């Protein structure tokens, strides 16, 4: 989602090089989206595959893969399990010797058959520290005596460290907390052995499982997590965008909030002298609006920042109006100096040598009218006489509902002709009493002739949008924020 809000910039513009402007934006990645990305990555990379078909023994770290574990561990299939005496299983099933459970464990009789998950949750601990919890469900069997499942958590601490304009990911720890075993019996061959077996199993797993999961899961999990977070904190432009000298996005600070990873972003754009209106050095900060429900990420602008960007992107083109257009002909007749003074009719030859142009040297601006984004374009309509010896000018301001689209990784502003209104500025004094007709003709010409041309020009001057791995703002929607402070009448003509 793309947001703009507020009537004030939080900070003044940062120092800039000649021909460049720097603009302050905010990029937020939803905590829920980050959880989903981590979960999807771990599932794709099957990080729990390494723990299946492995015996769990009391001697931490001695478990090795078993190639065939049903119904018994056969001699020769595993170096560690080859010492398993199958008579132990028979004795246990007949109930002859409960103490033999310990020997069965030592011989590799407790096997992890399968693993499901992990289910990922992310907990924000501070503005620079969060914890990722991987909930895993393991399915184990004790030969033909007992099948059960157990839920165990793996926790990874992550710290974001800021050095200058660089944010580095530091993984603090990856561990499995001891205790809190959640065991569910799935199948039992001998009910008399279940309680005794569970007592022994709990003791064994309490001692071995934390070390086992840390050894088998943590290395790959931390490597993948580090890579994903580094990608999230790295902003790029689409390959189709023109060279880096034109547009650059830089992450200057990163912090964690209750709902998102918040990155303060500096956008560097090309900008010639005088293209941007001066801003005060110190302006009151405005709070960021809440992340929209269901939004993966958003790129947030202050209105003034977005208008500054528009002014840097904008290059005007004068439009020469077709004199065969009926509205243009009516305007020429109304504005012609010969029409404003008594005298003979203007000859066809002199009328054919005049020109009517629409000029818009200043960029459009966006403002908020209630919950609606509006676009305001100032300009002038100029009637030039033969050989440019004389001219008549009418200044105007066109107000229209603003439409935004994000296609091909660019944010484009468009005017909506059907919602447009116009207000006239200074115009020839001889038109007294004909202002309404002049206004109607100017509006008709702008809607039918000027706006299609102007919208096409604005499409060519779209703002390149950033992208991060897994998230693109292509096809994003622009919404005004409810947290805005726009003065009454800000969008009035």
From TrEMBL:
Q: Which Pfam families match?
A: LBP_BPI_CETP (PF01273)
Instruction: List the top taxonomic levels of the source.
Output: Eukaryota, Metazoa, Chordata, Craniata, Vertebrata
Q: Which UniProt keywords apply?
A: Signal
Q: Where is the Lipid-binding serum glycoprotein N-terminal domain?
A: 130-228
For this chain, the family text in UniProt reads: Belongs to the BPI/LBP/Plunc superfamily. BPI/LBP family.
What is the name listed in the Swiss-Prot or TrEMBL entry for this protein?
Lipid-binding serum glycoprotein N-terminal domain-containing protein
| A molecular function GO annotation | lipid binding
The protein's matches in PANTHER family, at most eight in alphabetical order, are given as: BPI FOLD CONTAINING FAMILY B, MEMBER 5, BPI FOLD-CONTAINING FAMILY B MEMBER 4-RELATED
Q: Which domain of life is it from?
A: Eukaryota
The answer to keyword Ribosomal protein applying to this record is: no
């Amino acid at each position: 989602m793309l947001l703009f809000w507020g009537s004030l910039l939080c900070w003044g513009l940062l120092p800039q090089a000649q021909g460049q402007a720097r603009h302050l934006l905010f990029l937020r990645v939803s905590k829920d989206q980050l959880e989903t990305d981590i979960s999807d990555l771990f599932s794709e990379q099957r990080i729990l595959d390494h723990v299946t078909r492995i015996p769990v023994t009391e001697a931490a770290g001695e478990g090795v893969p078993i190639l065939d574990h049903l119904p018994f561990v056969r001699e020769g299939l595993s170096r560690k399990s080859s010492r398993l005496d199958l008579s132990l299983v028979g004795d246990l099933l007949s109930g002859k010797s409960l103490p033999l459970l310990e020997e069965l464990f030592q011989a590799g009789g407790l096997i992890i058959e399968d693993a499901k998950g992990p289910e990922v949750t992310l907990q924000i601990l501070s503005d620079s520290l969060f914890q990722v919890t991987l909930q895993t469900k393991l399915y184990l069997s004790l030969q033909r005596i007992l099948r059960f499942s157990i839920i165990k958590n793996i926790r990874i601490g992550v710290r974001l460290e800021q050095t200058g304009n660089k944010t580095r990911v530091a993984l603090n720890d990856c561990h499995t907390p001891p205790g809190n075993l959640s065991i569910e019996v799935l199948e039992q061959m001998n009910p008399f052995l279940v309680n005794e077996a569970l007592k022994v199993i709990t003791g064994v797993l309490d001692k071995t499982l934390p070390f086992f999961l840390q050894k088998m899961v943590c290395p790959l999990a931390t490597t993948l997590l580090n890579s994903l977070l580094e990608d999230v904190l790295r902003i790029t432009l689409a390959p189709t965008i023109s060279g880096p000298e034109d547009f650059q996005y830089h992450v200057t600070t990163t912090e964690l909030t209750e709902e998102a990873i918040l990155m303060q972003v500096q956008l560097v754009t090309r900008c010639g002298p005088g293209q941007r209106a001066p801003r005060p050095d110190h302006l009151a900060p405005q709070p960021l609006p809440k992340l929209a429900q269901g939004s993966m990420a958003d790129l947030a602008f202050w209105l003034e920042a977005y208008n500054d960007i528009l002014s840097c992107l904008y290059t005007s083109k004068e439009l020469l109006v077709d004199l065969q257009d009926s509205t243009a002909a009516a305007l020429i007749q109304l504005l012609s100096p010969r029409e404003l003074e008594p005298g003979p009719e203007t000859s066809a030859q002199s009328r054919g040598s005049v020109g009517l142009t629409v000029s818009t040297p200043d960029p459009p601006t966006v403002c908020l009218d209630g919950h609606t984004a509006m676009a305001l374009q100032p300009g002038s309509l100029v009637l030039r006489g033969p050989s440019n010896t004389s001219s008549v000018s009418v200044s105007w301001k066109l107000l229209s509902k603003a439409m935004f689209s994000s296609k091909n990784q660019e944010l484009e502003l468009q005017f909506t002709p059907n919602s447009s209104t116009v207000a006239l500025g200074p115009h020839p004094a001889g038109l007294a009493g004909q202002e309404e007709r002049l206004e109607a003709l100017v509006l008709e010409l702008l809607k039918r002739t000027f706006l299609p041309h102007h919208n096409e020009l604005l499409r060519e001057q779209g703002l390149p949008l950033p992208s991060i791995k897994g998230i693109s703002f292509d096809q994003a929607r622009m919404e005004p924020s409810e947290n805005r402070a726009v003065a009454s009448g800000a969008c009035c003509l």
